[in-house]
Amino acid sequence: MAIETRDTLTVAHRASAPAPSIEPARASAAPGDQRWSRRSVLKGIGVGAATVVVAGIGAGSYRVFDNGVLSAGSGRPYDAWGHWRDDPGPLGTVGAAILAANPHNSQPWIFHVASAQVDLFADPSRRVGTIDPLGREQQIGLGCALENLVLAARARGLKPAVTLLPNPRDPTHVATVALPPGPATRSALHDAIGDRHSNRGPYKPGPLPVAALDRLAAQAAAQSGIEVSWFANARDRQQLGALILDATAAIVADHQQSSDAFAWFRNNRDDIDTHMDGLTLDGQGLAPLTLTLAKLLPASSRTAGDTFWLDQTLSVHTRTAAAYGVLTVADPHDPAQRLEGGRVLERIHLAATAEGLGLQHMNQITERIDREQTIGARATFAPRYAELLGRSGGQPLATFRIGEPERTAGLSPRRPVKAVTR
Ligand SMILES: Cc1cc2nc3c(=O)[nH]c(=O)nc-3n(C[C@H](O)[C@H](O)[C@H](O)COP(=O)(O)O)c2cc1C
User: Fold this and answer.
1) The whole model's pTM is what?
2) 361 CB less than 6 Å from ligand 1?
3) What's the domain range around 313?
4) Same domain flag for 69 and 187
5) Is the CB of residue 103 below 6 angstroms from any atom belonging to ligand 1?
6) 421 falls within a domain
7) How far away, in angstroms, is 360 Cα from ligand 1 center?
8) Can you give the CATH number for the domain in which 122 is found?
9) Mind listing the pLDDT tens digit for each residue in 321-356?
10) Quick one: 418 exposed, middle or buried, by C-beta within 10 A (0-12, 13-18, 19+)?
11) In terms of domains, do 99 and 205 share one?
12) Scanning 28, 163, 310, 357, which has its CA 20 to 30 A from the CA of 20?
Protein backbone atom coordinates (compact mmCIF):
# COMPACT_ATOMS: atom_id res chain seq x y z
CA MET A 1 0.00 0.00 0.00
CA ALA A 2 1.27 3.44 -0.73
CA ILE A 3 -0.21 6.73 0.27
CA GLU A 4 0.30 9.54 -2.10
CA THR A 5 -0.91 13.01 -1.42
CA ARG A 6 -0.73 15.06 -4.55
CA ASP A 7 1.34 17.67 -2.74
CA THR A 8 4.23 15.29 -2.63
CA LEU A 9 4.02 14.03 -6.18
CA THR A 10 5.72 15.42 -9.20
CA VAL A 11 2.84 15.51 -11.57
CA ALA A 12 2.93 16.77 -15.10
CA HIS A 13 0.09 19.22 -14.59
CA ARG A 14 -1.69 20.31 -17.67
CA ALA A 15 -0.60 23.86 -18.26
CA SER A 16 -4.04 24.93 -19.35
CA ALA A 17 -6.57 22.54 -17.95
CA PRO A 18 -9.74 22.89 -20.03
CA ALA A 19 -12.55 24.48 -18.12
CA PRO A 20 -15.38 22.16 -17.18
CA SER A 21 -17.50 21.73 -20.23
CA ILE A 22 -20.72 22.07 -18.30
CA GLU A 23 -22.46 25.05 -16.91
CA PRO A 24 -25.95 24.90 -15.50
CA ALA A 25 -27.06 27.79 -17.67
CA ARG A 26 -26.07 25.91 -20.80
CA ALA A 27 -27.64 22.60 -19.90
CA SER A 28 -30.63 21.80 -22.06
CA ALA A 29 -34.09 21.31 -20.65
CA ALA A 30 -36.65 18.75 -21.65
CA PRO A 31 -39.60 20.23 -23.53
CA GLY A 32 -42.42 21.28 -21.32
CA ASP A 33 -40.62 20.91 -18.02
CA GLN A 34 -39.81 24.55 -17.46
CA ARG A 35 -42.33 25.44 -14.77
CA TRP A 36 -43.19 22.34 -12.85
CA SER A 37 -40.47 19.78 -13.18
CA ARG A 38 -38.40 18.73 -10.20
CA ARG A 39 -35.40 20.08 -12.06
CA SER A 40 -36.67 23.60 -12.39
CA VAL A 41 -37.59 23.72 -8.72
CA LEU A 42 -34.34 22.20 -7.66
CA LYS A 43 -32.49 24.78 -9.73
CA GLY A 44 -34.61 27.73 -8.81
CA ILE A 45 -35.26 26.94 -5.19
CA GLY A 46 -35.74 30.10 -3.19
CA VAL A 47 -37.47 31.83 -6.06
CA GLY A 48 -41.17 31.45 -5.56
CA ALA A 49 -40.78 28.37 -3.40
CA ALA A 50 -43.96 29.06 -1.48
CA THR A 51 -45.92 29.28 -4.72
CA VAL A 52 -44.58 25.93 -5.77
CA VAL A 53 -45.55 24.29 -2.49
CA VAL A 54 -49.09 25.57 -2.80
CA ALA A 55 -49.37 24.73 -6.47
CA GLY A 56 -47.83 21.30 -5.99
CA ILE A 57 -50.07 20.32 -3.12
CA GLY A 58 -53.12 21.86 -4.72
CA ALA A 59 -52.47 20.01 -7.94
CA GLY A 60 -52.23 16.64 -6.29
CA SER A 61 -51.80 16.17 -2.59
CA TYR A 62 -51.85 12.42 -3.21
CA ARG A 63 -48.20 12.80 -4.12
CA VAL A 64 -47.42 13.32 -0.44
CA PHE A 65 -48.23 9.62 -0.08
CA ASP A 66 -47.43 8.45 -3.59
CA ASN A 67 -43.89 9.69 -3.34
CA GLY A 68 -43.12 8.92 0.28
CA VAL A 69 -42.80 12.48 1.52
CA LEU A 70 -43.67 11.31 5.02
CA SER A 71 -42.17 7.83 4.93
CA ALA A 72 -38.57 8.39 3.81
CA GLY A 73 -36.23 5.76 5.15
CA SER A 74 -38.94 3.67 6.77
CA GLY A 75 -41.01 0.67 5.78
CA ARG A 76 -40.05 -2.63 4.17
CA PRO A 77 -37.46 -1.34 1.66
CA TYR A 78 -35.45 0.06 4.57
CA ASP A 79 -35.92 -2.72 7.14
CA ALA A 80 -32.50 -4.24 6.44
CA TRP A 81 -30.79 -1.21 8.02
CA GLY A 82 -32.40 -1.92 11.36
CA HIS A 83 -31.92 -5.70 11.49
CA TRP A 84 -28.41 -6.43 10.33
CA ARG A 85 -27.21 -7.35 13.83
CA ASP A 86 -30.13 -9.63 14.67
CA ASP A 87 -29.07 -13.04 13.36
CA PRO A 88 -26.00 -14.43 15.18
CA GLY A 89 -25.08 -17.01 12.51
CA PRO A 90 -23.98 -17.13 8.86
CA LEU A 91 -27.31 -15.71 7.68
CA GLY A 92 -26.55 -12.64 9.78
CA THR A 93 -23.37 -12.05 7.79
CA VAL A 94 -25.54 -11.74 4.68
CA GLY A 95 -27.66 -9.16 6.49
CA ALA A 96 -24.51 -7.05 6.83
CA ALA A 97 -23.26 -7.78 3.30
CA ILE A 98 -26.38 -6.40 1.61
CA LEU A 99 -25.84 -3.02 3.23
CA ALA A 100 -22.62 -2.48 1.30
CA ALA A 101 -22.07 0.20 -1.31
CA ASN A 102 -22.83 -1.13 -4.79
CA PRO A 103 -23.20 0.40 -8.25
CA HIS A 104 -26.50 2.22 -8.77
CA ASN A 105 -27.86 0.24 -5.84
CA SER A 106 -28.30 -2.64 -8.28
CA GLN A 107 -27.52 -5.11 -5.46
CA PRO A 108 -25.92 -7.55 -7.89
CA TRP A 109 -25.55 -10.44 -5.45
CA ILE A 110 -26.83 -13.90 -4.62
CA PHE A 111 -25.73 -15.75 -1.47
CA HIS A 112 -25.72 -19.50 -0.85
CA VAL A 113 -25.79 -19.97 2.88
CA ALA A 114 -24.75 -23.22 4.62
CA SER A 115 -24.17 -23.95 8.30
CA ALA A 116 -20.48 -23.00 8.21
CA GLN A 117 -20.01 -21.38 4.82
CA VAL A 118 -21.38 -18.62 2.62
CA ASP A 119 -20.85 -18.51 -1.14
CA LEU A 120 -21.19 -15.20 -2.96
CA PHE A 121 -22.34 -15.11 -6.58
CA ALA A 122 -22.79 -12.27 -9.04
CA ASP A 123 -26.31 -11.85 -10.36
CA PRO A 124 -25.79 -11.27 -14.11
CA SER A 125 -29.34 -9.96 -14.47
CA ARG A 126 -28.37 -6.99 -12.33
CA ARG A 127 -25.77 -5.41 -14.58
CA VAL A 128 -26.16 -1.68 -15.20
CA GLY A 129 -25.64 -1.89 -18.97
CA THR A 130 -23.38 0.52 -20.79
CA ILE A 131 -22.69 2.46 -17.60
CA ASP A 132 -20.56 -0.51 -16.56
CA PRO A 133 -19.91 -2.26 -19.87
CA LEU A 134 -16.96 -4.34 -18.63
CA GLY A 135 -18.48 -5.34 -15.30
CA ARG A 136 -15.83 -3.43 -13.35
CA GLU A 137 -18.27 -1.75 -10.97
CA GLN A 138 -20.31 -4.87 -10.42
CA GLN A 139 -17.22 -6.74 -9.24
CA ILE A 140 -16.09 -3.83 -7.07
CA GLY A 141 -19.56 -3.75 -5.49
CA LEU A 142 -19.37 -7.49 -4.82
CA GLY A 143 -16.02 -6.86 -3.13
CA CYS A 144 -17.72 -4.25 -0.95
CA ALA A 145 -20.37 -6.78 0.08
CA LEU A 146 -17.71 -9.41 0.77
CA GLU A 147 -15.91 -7.04 3.13
CA ASN A 148 -19.07 -6.37 5.17
CA LEU A 149 -19.67 -10.13 5.29
CA VAL A 150 -16.15 -10.78 6.63
CA LEU A 151 -16.43 -8.03 9.27
CA ALA A 152 -19.81 -9.35 10.37
CA ALA A 153 -18.47 -12.91 10.55
CA ARG A 154 -15.63 -11.86 12.86
CA ALA A 155 -18.03 -9.97 15.10
CA ARG A 156 -20.14 -13.13 15.35
CA GLY A 157 -17.32 -15.31 16.65
CA LEU A 158 -16.53 -16.84 13.28
CA LYS A 159 -13.14 -16.97 11.56
CA PRO A 160 -13.79 -16.21 7.88
CA ALA A 161 -11.47 -17.75 5.29
CA VAL A 162 -12.04 -16.20 1.88
CA THR A 163 -11.30 -17.92 -1.42
CA LEU A 164 -11.86 -15.59 -4.34
CA LEU A 165 -13.21 -16.99 -7.61
CA PRO A 166 -13.13 -20.60 -6.40
CA ASN A 167 -14.53 -22.10 -9.60
CA PRO A 168 -12.61 -21.28 -12.78
CA ARG A 169 -15.54 -22.59 -14.83
CA ASP A 170 -18.01 -20.22 -13.18
CA PRO A 171 -16.97 -16.55 -13.21
CA THR A 172 -20.17 -15.62 -11.36
CA HIS A 173 -18.96 -17.59 -8.34
CA VAL A 174 -17.20 -14.66 -6.72
CA ALA A 175 -16.11 -16.08 -3.37
CA THR A 176 -16.40 -18.90 -0.93
CA VAL A 177 -16.19 -17.84 2.69
CA ALA A 178 -15.59 -20.69 5.13
CA LEU A 179 -16.88 -19.78 8.58
CA PRO A 180 -15.33 -21.95 11.28
CA PRO A 181 -15.64 -20.80 14.90
CA GLY A 182 -13.13 -18.19 16.09
CA PRO A 183 -12.74 -15.37 18.54
CA ALA A 184 -15.47 -12.71 18.44
CA THR A 185 -13.85 -9.53 17.15
CA ARG A 186 -15.88 -6.40 16.82
CA SER A 187 -14.29 -3.40 15.22
CA ALA A 188 -15.07 0.25 14.55
CA LEU A 189 -15.49 -0.70 10.89
CA HIS A 190 -18.03 -3.37 11.78
CA ASP A 191 -19.97 -1.01 14.00
CA ALA A 192 -20.17 1.53 11.16
CA ILE A 193 -21.90 -0.90 8.74
CA GLY A 194 -25.40 0.33 9.53
CA ASP A 195 -24.40 4.00 9.46
CA ARG A 196 -22.50 3.97 6.14
CA HIS A 197 -24.36 5.76 3.38
CA SER A 198 -23.41 7.57 0.21
CA ASN A 199 -23.45 11.26 1.05
CA ARG A 200 -24.14 13.29 -2.10
CA GLY A 201 -24.79 16.55 -0.31
CA PRO A 202 -22.43 19.50 0.19
CA TYR A 203 -19.34 19.15 2.33
CA LYS A 204 -17.94 21.89 4.54
CA PRO A 205 -15.22 24.10 3.09
CA GLY A 206 -11.64 23.63 4.12
CA PRO A 207 -9.09 20.86 3.66
CA LEU A 208 -9.05 17.68 5.69
CA PRO A 209 -6.04 17.06 7.92
CA VAL A 210 -3.40 14.90 6.25
CA ALA A 211 -3.59 12.58 9.26
CA ALA A 212 -7.25 11.84 8.46
CA LEU A 213 -6.35 10.95 4.87
CA ASP A 214 -3.54 8.75 6.14
CA ARG A 215 -5.91 6.89 8.44
CA LEU A 216 -8.30 6.21 5.56
CA ALA A 217 -5.57 5.14 3.18
CA ALA A 218 -4.25 2.77 5.86
CA GLN A 219 -7.31 0.64 5.09
CA ALA A 220 -5.46 -0.47 1.95
CA ALA A 221 -2.48 -1.64 4.00
CA ALA A 222 -3.45 -5.29 3.99
CA GLN A 223 -3.75 -5.48 0.21
CA SER A 224 -0.57 -5.44 -1.79
CA GLY A 225 -0.87 -3.73 -5.14
CA ILE A 226 -3.73 -1.44 -4.17
CA GLU A 227 -2.84 2.19 -3.69
CA VAL A 228 -4.77 5.28 -2.67
CA SER A 229 -3.85 8.54 -4.35
CA TRP A 230 -5.25 11.71 -2.83
CA PHE A 231 -6.14 14.81 -4.76
CA ALA A 232 -6.30 17.17 -1.83
CA ASN A 233 -4.85 20.53 -2.74
CA ALA A 234 -6.85 23.16 -4.60
CA ARG A 235 -5.17 22.70 -7.97
CA ASP A 236 -5.40 18.92 -7.95
CA ARG A 237 -9.03 19.07 -6.90
CA GLN A 238 -9.81 21.55 -9.65
CA GLN A 239 -8.16 19.39 -12.28
CA LEU A 240 -9.78 16.13 -11.23
CA GLY A 241 -13.11 17.90 -10.74
CA ALA A 242 -12.89 19.26 -14.30
CA LEU A 243 -12.27 15.77 -15.67
CA ILE A 244 -15.20 14.37 -13.68
CA LEU A 245 -17.41 17.11 -15.08
CA ASP A 246 -16.33 16.39 -18.62
CA ALA A 247 -17.01 12.68 -18.08
CA THR A 248 -20.45 13.48 -16.65
CA ALA A 249 -21.24 15.58 -19.72
CA ALA A 250 -20.06 12.76 -21.99
CA ILE A 251 -22.35 10.25 -20.22
CA VAL A 252 -25.30 12.60 -20.56
CA ALA A 253 -24.52 13.10 -24.25
CA ASP A 254 -24.38 9.33 -24.78
CA HIS A 255 -28.02 8.34 -25.17
CA GLN A 256 -27.45 4.70 -24.29
CA GLN A 257 -25.40 5.39 -21.17
CA SER A 258 -27.87 8.01 -20.02
CA SER A 259 -30.80 5.62 -20.55
CA ASP A 260 -29.08 2.74 -18.79
CA ALA A 261 -28.39 4.96 -15.77
CA PHE A 262 -31.93 6.33 -15.71
CA ALA A 263 -33.35 2.81 -15.66
CA TRP A 264 -32.10 2.52 -12.06
CA PHE A 265 -33.75 5.71 -10.85
CA ARG A 266 -36.82 5.00 -8.71
CA ASN A 267 -39.14 7.92 -9.21
CA ASN A 268 -41.72 7.36 -6.50
CA ARG A 269 -42.52 5.36 -3.41
CA ASP A 270 -44.41 2.73 -5.40
CA ASP A 271 -41.29 2.03 -7.45
CA ILE A 272 -39.20 1.83 -4.30
CA ASP A 273 -41.66 -0.56 -2.64
CA THR A 274 -41.79 -2.73 -5.74
CA HIS A 275 -38.08 -2.95 -6.53
CA MET A 276 -36.36 -2.13 -3.22
CA ASP A 277 -33.26 -1.12 -5.16
CA GLY A 278 -31.98 1.71 -7.32
CA LEU A 279 -31.33 5.39 -6.72
CA THR A 280 -33.88 7.62 -5.02
CA LEU A 281 -34.45 11.29 -4.33
CA ASP A 282 -33.79 10.61 -0.65
CA GLY A 283 -30.24 9.59 -1.50
CA GLN A 284 -29.32 12.77 -3.35
CA GLY A 285 -28.24 14.81 -0.33
CA LEU A 286 -30.78 17.57 -0.91
CA ALA A 287 -31.78 20.16 1.67
CA PRO A 288 -35.01 19.12 3.46
CA LEU A 289 -37.27 21.71 1.81
CA THR A 290 -35.85 21.04 -1.63
CA LEU A 291 -36.36 17.31 -1.14
CA THR A 292 -39.96 17.75 -0.09
CA LEU A 293 -40.72 19.97 -3.05
CA ALA A 294 -38.98 17.62 -5.43
CA LYS A 295 -41.14 14.76 -4.19
CA LEU A 296 -44.35 16.71 -4.58
CA LEU A 297 -43.72 17.54 -8.20
CA PRO A 298 -44.18 15.28 -11.19
CA ALA A 299 -41.41 12.77 -11.83
CA SER A 300 -38.37 13.88 -13.76
CA SER A 301 -37.81 12.91 -17.36
CA ARG A 302 -34.47 11.35 -18.22
CA THR A 303 -33.16 14.59 -19.69
CA ALA A 304 -34.35 16.65 -16.74
CA GLY A 305 -32.69 14.17 -14.41
CA ASP A 306 -29.46 14.43 -16.38
CA THR A 307 -29.54 18.20 -16.16
CA PHE A 308 -30.08 18.02 -12.42
CA TRP A 309 -27.16 15.58 -12.12
CA LEU A 310 -24.89 17.87 -14.13
CA ASP A 311 -25.88 20.81 -11.97
CA GLN A 312 -25.23 18.89 -8.77
CA THR A 313 -21.91 17.58 -10.03
CA LEU A 314 -20.81 21.10 -10.83
CA SER A 315 -22.28 23.10 -7.98
CA VAL A 316 -22.15 20.60 -5.12
CA HIS A 317 -20.14 17.42 -5.73
CA THR A 318 -17.00 18.88 -7.28
CA ARG A 319 -17.28 22.32 -5.73
CA THR A 320 -17.40 21.06 -2.14
CA ALA A 321 -15.11 18.02 -2.32
CA ALA A 322 -12.51 18.39 0.43
CA ALA A 323 -10.43 15.71 -1.29
CA TYR A 324 -10.73 13.03 -3.94
CA GLY A 325 -9.34 9.57 -3.44
CA VAL A 326 -8.41 7.34 -6.34
CA LEU A 327 -7.84 3.62 -5.88
CA THR A 328 -5.27 2.31 -8.33
CA VAL A 329 -4.35 -1.27 -9.17
CA ALA A 330 -2.00 -2.90 -11.66
CA ASP A 331 -4.83 -4.24 -13.82
CA PRO A 332 -8.37 -2.93 -13.37
CA HIS A 333 -9.64 -5.62 -15.74
CA ASP A 334 -8.54 -8.42 -13.44
CA PRO A 335 -11.57 -9.74 -11.49
CA ALA A 336 -9.57 -10.55 -8.35
CA GLN A 337 -8.06 -7.05 -8.23
CA ARG A 338 -11.53 -5.55 -8.65
CA LEU A 339 -12.87 -7.65 -5.79
CA GLU A 340 -9.95 -6.82 -3.50
CA GLY A 341 -10.28 -3.17 -4.53
CA GLY A 342 -13.95 -3.28 -3.57
CA ARG A 343 -13.03 -4.67 -0.16
CA VAL A 344 -10.59 -1.80 0.39
CA LEU A 345 -13.12 0.74 -0.85
CA GLU A 346 -15.75 -0.49 1.59
CA ARG A 347 -13.25 -0.35 4.46
CA ILE A 348 -12.37 3.22 3.52
CA HIS A 349 -16.06 4.14 3.43
CA LEU A 350 -16.66 2.51 6.82
CA ALA A 351 -13.60 4.20 8.31
CA ALA A 352 -14.80 7.55 6.95
CA THR A 353 -18.21 6.88 8.50
CA ALA A 354 -16.61 6.06 11.84
CA GLU A 355 -14.75 9.40 11.66
CA GLY A 356 -17.91 11.34 10.82
CA LEU A 357 -16.80 12.02 7.24
CA GLY A 358 -19.04 11.92 4.19
CA LEU A 359 -18.05 9.90 1.13
CA GLN A 360 -19.48 9.76 -2.37
CA HIS A 361 -18.25 7.41 -5.07
CA MET A 362 -17.74 9.32 -8.33
CA ASN A 363 -16.90 6.97 -11.16
CA GLN A 364 -17.86 8.93 -14.24
CA ILE A 365 -14.29 8.96 -15.59
CA THR A 366 -13.79 5.20 -15.48
CA GLU A 367 -17.33 4.71 -16.81
CA ARG A 368 -16.27 6.71 -19.86
CA ILE A 369 -12.92 4.91 -20.10
CA ASP A 370 -14.68 1.54 -20.25
CA ARG A 371 -17.37 2.87 -22.60
CA GLU A 372 -14.81 4.26 -25.06
CA GLN A 373 -12.98 0.96 -24.98
CA THR A 374 -16.08 -1.16 -25.67
CA ILE A 375 -17.37 0.91 -28.58
CA GLY A 376 -13.92 1.14 -30.14
CA ALA A 377 -13.83 4.93 -29.84
CA ARG A 378 -10.60 6.87 -29.56
CA ALA A 379 -9.53 6.84 -25.93
CA THR A 380 -9.89 10.36 -24.56
CA PHE A 381 -10.48 9.89 -20.84
CA ALA A 382 -7.86 7.17 -20.22
CA PRO A 383 -4.88 9.36 -21.24
CA ARG A 384 -6.22 12.38 -19.39
CA TYR A 385 -6.69 10.38 -16.19
CA ALA A 386 -3.26 8.77 -16.59
CA GLU A 387 -1.72 12.23 -16.89
CA LEU A 388 -3.44 13.43 -13.74
CA LEU A 389 -2.38 10.35 -11.83
CA GLY A 390 1.20 10.95 -12.87
CA ARG A 391 3.78 8.47 -11.77
CA SER A 392 1.64 6.54 -9.30
CA GLY A 393 2.18 3.46 -11.45
CA GLY A 394 -1.20 1.80 -11.15
CA GLN A 395 -4.30 2.32 -13.22
CA PRO A 396 -7.47 3.87 -11.83
CA LEU A 397 -9.98 1.41 -10.44
CA ALA A 398 -12.41 3.69 -8.59
CA THR A 399 -12.78 7.32 -7.53
CA PHE A 400 -14.52 9.01 -4.60
CA ARG A 401 -14.76 12.35 -2.85
CA ILE A 402 -14.73 12.91 0.89
CA GLY A 403 -15.34 15.77 3.27
CA GLU A 404 -17.08 16.87 6.41
CA PRO A 405 -20.75 16.63 5.44
CA GLU A 406 -23.21 19.45 5.95
CA ARG A 407 -26.19 17.07 5.87
CA THR A 408 -27.03 13.62 7.12
CA ALA A 409 -27.26 11.16 4.25
CA GLY A 410 -30.56 9.41 3.56
CA LEU A 411 -31.00 5.64 3.59
CA SER A 412 -31.14 3.72 0.32
CA PRO A 413 -33.51 0.77 -0.10
CA ARG A 414 -32.43 -2.85 0.10
CA ARG A 415 -34.04 -6.11 -0.95
CA PRO A 416 -34.35 -8.35 2.11
CA VAL A 417 -31.96 -11.19 2.88
CA LYS A 418 -34.50 -13.81 1.89
CA ALA A 419 -34.78 -12.31 -1.59
CA VAL A 420 -31.05 -12.74 -2.23
CA THR A 421 -30.29 -16.08 -0.56
CA ARG A 422 -30.60 -19.52 -2.13
C1 LIG B 1 -18.42 0.43 -7.77
C2 LIG B 1 -19.32 1.52 -7.33
C3 LIG B 1 -19.51 2.62 -8.15
C4 LIG B 1 -20.33 3.68 -7.72
N5 LIG B 1 -20.39 4.82 -8.49
C6 LIG B 1 -21.10 5.89 -8.04
C7 LIG B 1 -21.09 7.11 -8.75
O8 LIG B 1 -20.43 7.24 -9.78
N9 LIG B 1 -21.82 8.15 -8.26
C10 LIG B 1 -22.53 8.04 -7.09
O11 LIG B 1 -23.16 9.03 -6.68
N12 LIG B 1 -22.55 6.88 -6.39
C13 LIG B 1 -21.85 5.81 -6.83
N14 LIG B 1 -21.81 4.66 -6.11
C15 LIG B 1 -22.57 4.58 -4.84
C16 LIG B 1 -23.83 3.76 -5.03
O17 LIG B 1 -24.75 4.42 -5.87
C18 LIG B 1 -24.44 3.46 -3.66
O19 LIG B 1 -23.53 2.69 -2.93
C20 LIG B 1 -25.76 2.75 -3.75
O21 LIG B 1 -26.72 3.56 -4.36
C22 LIG B 1 -26.28 2.34 -2.37
O23 LIG B 1 -26.42 3.49 -1.57
P24 LIG B 1 -25.65 3.61 -0.17
O25 LIG B 1 -24.18 3.66 -0.48
O26 LIG B 1 -26.13 4.90 0.40
O27 LIG B 1 -26.00 2.42 0.64
C28 LIG B 1 -21.00 3.60 -6.49
C29 LIG B 1 -20.81 2.48 -5.68
C30 LIG B 1 -19.97 1.45 -6.08
C31 LIG B 1 -19.71 0.29 -5.17
Assistant:
1) 0.88
2) yes
3) 3-74+197-403
4) no
5) yes
6) no
7) 7
8) 3.40.109.10
9) 999 999 999 999 999 999 999 999 999 999 999 999
10) exposed
11) no
12) 357
